[in-house]
């Protein structure tokens, strides 16, 4: 799905701003005094707990005027996301429905509106997570009849319109999709889909706008002479302008390759070592609302620490983030929202009776269908980003349980069909060991999340070091693939200090990370380290959480804890060596 861009043949109107907002409503005029900001999660905007704890649909509404010059064009509404379910109405007419909270969807509303006139736009957004949504969740009813949402992931279930909403014009015959695959010799294989058969031309422009290749036909290969590669830390972007009579669309791209060979992760044929973070889209007040100021600042802080990469834990991030990574040469592991496919974690944390994770009664075919759809939408959205070097299909699934292989094998196949060019991984949970894991051989890279020294061997870094080394060596030996740590971290209260190994202190977070780095440097097949987490973030209530998860290297308002300085020293030092 193409990102909306203004071109000579396409116009865009941003519908961001203040919308009328209500917990009860319908497509008719909303009877409400509340207004909500878009983009923003609605949860933290209001003081009324009924909004924050609401389970079900909420209603957003505004008037929209169609520009008068748009007569004869297709008129399209585009929502960059509605978390987790969206229903869109023009006047009283339902024009789009979508499930999956972190990927875009659109509706052609040409038949329902008129150029120059206003219409009432209503978006109902549902936040319910169930056994057949990605991520999954459970709705319970409390003794007093309140519906409560529980879920198996460790971040707050922010909901609403957290990304931009657009009104777009498009010519009647238009370009629908573009897929680009590049080679180191400057070849660009392209496929252009159009709304109906029509001759296609393509032109490739370099960063200065100079034409460097041309081609004809809906699919083909063009070649850029003396190509400048897209490299981590040294990005270079071209644009492929697809043209048909009456429409054109410029698709930015970078020329680079990705490959796993033996125990190496290669970008442009050169070994790449990941340094960086698992992150969240999470800020005060906005929740998961996209914000360009935080975008710029977070990338500045990543650069300051010497991070060359991050994982979009635990869902696809806003497209602005992906574009920014392309332009700034940051490498991305792109993750679906499949977090929490693990009932053992729930029983471990909350004492619930263990049930099999993968079964018709728990997560079965319908869950897998939703998961497959999440993968399709992620690849469709992000396939042309040079920054994206790997797909991560799930975070901490019960890959050690019966049924895991049957569940994941078709999903890995699907991903490879959709994109044969990128490696595929998942992040393995603590309980999934190199001995009992049933799926790692299906994937290209072993990513493990481990908390030795935190949840296990708490405060005992010597024991933790021995456990960690044995664990990582086990994966490396059994699978012979590149191994990286996709999570390791310790909750830390800024300002808390100790001369001993005392959990929650700033010194402990630093010593914990340093212990890991000693181990990583001893393991040959090791290709990267992503600290959990870039910044503190909000979670559901829990006795193991203090106003959220505090494993951030930065606080929620992006101030460095002591560990940030230590990481900076290591990663800036590694940049020259690995
Ligand atoms: C994990 C999860 C992550 C949590 C983290 C923690 O394994 O993948 O979502 O936030 O542990 O801090 O417990």
UniProtKB/TrEMBL annotation:
Q: Where is the signal peptide?
A: none
Pfam families from the entry? Glyco_hydro_2, Glyco_hydro_2_C, Glyco_hydro_2_N
Could you list this entry's UniProt keywords, alphabetically sorted.
Answer: Glycosidase, Hydrolase
The Glycoside hydrolase family 2 immunoglobulin-like beta-sandwich domain, residue ranges: 185-256
Domain (Glycoside hydrolase family 2 catalytic) spans 258-573
Recorded superkingdom = Bacteria
Return the EC number. Answer: 3.2.1.31
* Domain Glycosyl hydrolases family 2 sugar binding, chain residue ranges per copy: 14-171
What enzyme category does the UniProt record give? hydrolase
Q: What family does the database annotate? A: Belongs to the glycosyl hydrolase 2 family.
Name this protein carries in UniProt: Beta-glucuronidase
Q: What is the organism field in this record?
A: Nonomuraea monospora
Give the encoding gene's name: uidA
């Amino acid at each position: 799905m193409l990102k909306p861009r203004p071109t000579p043949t396409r116009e865009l109107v941003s519908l961001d701003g203040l919308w009328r907002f209500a917990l009860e409503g319908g497509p008719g005029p909303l009877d409400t005094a509340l207004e909500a900001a878009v983009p923003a999660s609605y949860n933290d905007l209001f003081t009324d707990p009924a909004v924050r704890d609401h389970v079900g649909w909420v209603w957003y509404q505004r008037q929209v005027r169609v520009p008068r010059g748009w007569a004869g064009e297709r008129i399209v509404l585009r929502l960059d996301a509605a978390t987790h379910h969206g229903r869109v109405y023009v006047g009283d007419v339902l024009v789009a429905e979508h499930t999956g909270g972190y990927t875009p969807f659109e509706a052609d509303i040409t038949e329902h509106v008129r150029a120059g006139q206003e219409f009432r736009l209503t978006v109902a957004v549902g936040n319910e997570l169930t056994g057949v949504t990605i991520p999954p969740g459970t709705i319970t009813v409390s003794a007093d009849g309140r519906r409560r949402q529980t879920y198996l992931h460790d971040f707050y279930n922010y909901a609403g319109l957290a990304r931009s909403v657009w009104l777009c014009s498009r010519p009647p015959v238009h370009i629908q999709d573009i897929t680009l695959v590049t080679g180191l010799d400057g070849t660009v294989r392209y496929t252009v889909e159009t709304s109906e058969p029509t001759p296609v031309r393509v032109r490739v422009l370099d960063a200065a706008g100079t034409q460097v290749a041309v081609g004809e036909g809906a699919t083909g290969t063009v070649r850029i002479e003396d190509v400048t590669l897209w490299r981590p830390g040294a990005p270079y972007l071209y644009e492929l302008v697809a043209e048909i009579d009456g429409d054109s669309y410029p698709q930015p791209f970078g020329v680079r390759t990705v490959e796993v060979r033996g125990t190496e992760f290669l970008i442009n044929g050169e070994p790449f070592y990941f340094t960086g973070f698992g992150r969240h889209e999470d800020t005060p007040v906005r929740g998961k609302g996209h914000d360009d100021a935080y975008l710029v600042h977070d990338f500045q802080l990543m650069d300051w620490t010497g991070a060359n990469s991050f994982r979009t834990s635990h869902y696809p991030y806003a497209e602005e983030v992906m574009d920014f990574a392309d332009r700034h040469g940051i490498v991305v592991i792109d993750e679906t929202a499949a977090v929490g496919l693990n009932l053992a974690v729930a029983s471990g944390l909350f004492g619930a009776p263990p049930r099999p994770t993968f079964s018709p009664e728990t997560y079965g075919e319908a869950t897998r269908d939703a998961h497959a759809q999440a993968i399709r939408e992620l690849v469709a959205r992000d396939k042309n980003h040079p920054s994206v070097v790997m797909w991560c299909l799930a975070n901490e699934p019960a890959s050690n349980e019966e049924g895991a292989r049957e569940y994941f094998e078709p999903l890995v196949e699907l991903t490879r069909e959709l994109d044969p060019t990128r490696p595929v991984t998942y992040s393995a949970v603590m309980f999934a060991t190199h001995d009992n894991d049933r799926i790692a051989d299906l994937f290209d890279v072993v990513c493990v999340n481990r908390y030795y020294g935190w949840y296990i061997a708490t405060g005992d870094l010597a024991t933790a070091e021995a456990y960690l080394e044995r664990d990582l060596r086990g994966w490396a030996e059994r699978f012979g693939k590149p191994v990286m740590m996709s999570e390791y971290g310790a909750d830390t209260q800024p300002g808390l200090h100790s001369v001993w190994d005392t959990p929650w202190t700033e010194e402990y977070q630093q010593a914990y990370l340093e212990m890991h780095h000693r181990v990583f440097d001893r393991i040959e097949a090791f290709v990267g380290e992503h600290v959990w987490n870039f910044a503190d973030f909000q979670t559901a209530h829990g006795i193991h959480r203090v106003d959220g998860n505090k494993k951030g290297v930065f606080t929620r308002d992006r101030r460095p804890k002591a560990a940030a300085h230590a990481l900076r020293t290591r990663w800036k030092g590694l940049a020259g060596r690995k």
